Amino acid sequence: MKKVNVFYFVASLFVAVMLIAASCTKEGPAGPAGADGKDGVDGVDGVDGVDGATTCTECHDANQTISMKQFQWEGSSHAAGNALARSSSSHCSSCHSHQGFVISDGNNPETVDTWEGVDDPIVITCYTCHPIHTTYTAEDAVALNYDEQPNWAVTHDKTVDMDLGKGNLCSHCHQSRTRNPVVDMNDLTAMYTGISTHYGPHYSSQANLMGAFGAYEFAGSATYPTSNGHLGAENGCVSCHMGYTTANGTGGHNMHIDAGSDLEKACAQCHSAGAGAEEKYLEYYHEVFATIDHDGDPTLNTTSYYTRLGDLLTDFGVYTKVVDSVDGFPEAVHYNINRDLEINGTLTAAMFNHRYLYQDHSHGMHNPGYAEALLKNSLEAVEALK
Ligand code: HEC
Ligand code: HEC
Ligand code: HEC
Ligand code: HEC
Ligand code: HEC
Ligand code: HEC
Prior knowledge:
This protein has helices at residues 2-25, 65-74, 77-80, 93-96, 98-103, 126-129, 139-142, 168-171, 206-211, 237-242, 263-266, 277-288, 305-315, 345-360, 368-383; strands at residues 191-192, 292-293, 299-300, 319-326, 329-337, 343-344. The protein is mainly alpha-helical and 386 residues long.
């Protein structure tokens, strides 16, 4: 019995050690579940979040508010971006691309330090002119970026204070660029060389002509008007260029005025509610700017001040006159600047004025009285050189 007891004792000890060893790595079976705890106190209800999409329909609506503007804009040269590729140059990006305009803070590069070329430019879009997707309400399309007067790159020492209302946005880009040489009007006999075949204020002299600055004012028989009746348009550029729309897509967000069909609407703010505008334009155009007479078989016009000054500068070797013709009839007239010019101040300034009015592209409509006086007096100054 004793032997057996010892055996059992040793055996149980062995089993006990094994169990202890095993219990170090394995848990025993779970005991019965305890009683349920007390229910927690209910939380406070949160405030409903704002529906982020409610104001989107102020613009993205079934009236096609945006599509309509897009449709007009798509046909414009803002959308076409003919000169977009030049935006990789810091000299051009601020007016010829959306990003460049934003980088330069809406400034003509010649007036500020911050301007850069853009390698992935996009054209002038809704976002260029409006703070779209800022408050995400309709207000973003009513508001305009850069609605103050811009820095003016070229004033020729005139003091300029020209508030065009909503048109202030436009004049940030539609203003003259600086050009060398700058003519000294106190010494018109001084000679100038190094004149580029692109000389002139660039195709953006519109705001300058409206405000009558950035050209060379020769003394002469014509008096420069002290005011411009067309500055009476409440929102400057916007009143004439956007104040109406047509079924063929001009006006509105297209911004182009077709002088052949739109004047009654574009000029409706004044001139007997637009009724006399077309005749007024034609009479003025024929006398001051025409290069071709379109009545019947087109012939060259040789009497307008614009043509006479161009022809005279051609006689002085400043320009080469080129006439495109179709079926033997003149179609368009170009005055191209000759290379390697060495000319005096009178010829340089008169040529600049001719380019200033040509590149404005409005045939004087931005300031009829001033444009006419500028051409007449420039013509007289060059005639006096003969
Ligand atoms: C001020 C009017 C306006 C409001 C309000 C507005 N949008 Fe837009 N949205 C626009 C314009 C303008 C465009 C650009 C159209 C174009 O590129 O031609 C645009 C474009 C878009 C696009 C196309 C992608 C893009 O960025 O070009 C989306 C998506 C969009 N909006 C969503 C919204 C949402 C979501 C809301 C509300 C949270 C909203 N929009 C509120 C005017 C608005
Ligand atoms: C201050 C703004 C401004 C700057 C800077 C500028 N441009 Fe322009 N440019 C304009 C405007 C505005 C027009 C369009 C006027 C019009 O349609 O009558 C234009 C028109 C043009 C056109 C004619 C486009 C066409 O086919 O009708 C060319 C080409 C051009 N620019 C090239 C350049 C180049 C190259 C540079 C840089 C060296 C440059 N521009 C810098 C404002 C600017
Ligand atoms: C070159 C600048 C410019 C661009 C680009 C432009 N807008 Fe405008 N937009 C204006 C100006 C200026 C007004 C004010 C017009 C007025 O008062 O007659 C305006 C007005 C508006 C209005 C409100 C007034 C109205 O006529 O109903 C809406 C909406 C609008 N733009 C949408 C757009 C959309 C969408 C795009 C892009 C497809 C766009 N705009 C591109 C300058 C611009
Ligand atoms: C960011 C610069 C910029 C702003 C802002 C701007 N424009 Fe332009 N505009 C241009 C350029 C650049 C062109 C010529 C584009 C091209 O040919 O590549 C042009 C072309 C035009 C044209 C010729 C249209 C056509 O289809 O023949 C008109 C008209 C015009 N702009 C009017 C306006 C008006 C009005 C405003 C203000 C509501 C305005 N622009 C604002 C840069 C600008
Ligand atoms: C009194 C009305 C009036 C005002 C104000 C006005 N324009 Fe014009 N603009 C015209 C007319 C009309 C033409 C077209 C003349 C033609 O084709 O012979 C024109 C032509 C142009 C052109 C040439 C391209 C095109 O579409 O024919 C540009 C660019 C232009 N204007 C921009 C501007 C800018 C920028 C402003 C403001 C600084 C402005 N305009 C103010 C009436 C106006
Ligand atoms: C804000 C009012 C206003 C608007 C808009 C306006 N005009 Fe005038 N316009 C005048 C005034 C005032 C004069 C006379 C003073 C001057 O020459 O500056 C004038 C002068 C003219 C002249 C010079 C010939 C003359 O009788 O002395 C022509 C041409 C002309 N306007 C055509 C137009 C055309 C075309 C439009 C539309 C594109 C237009 N005007 C829009 C007020 C306006």
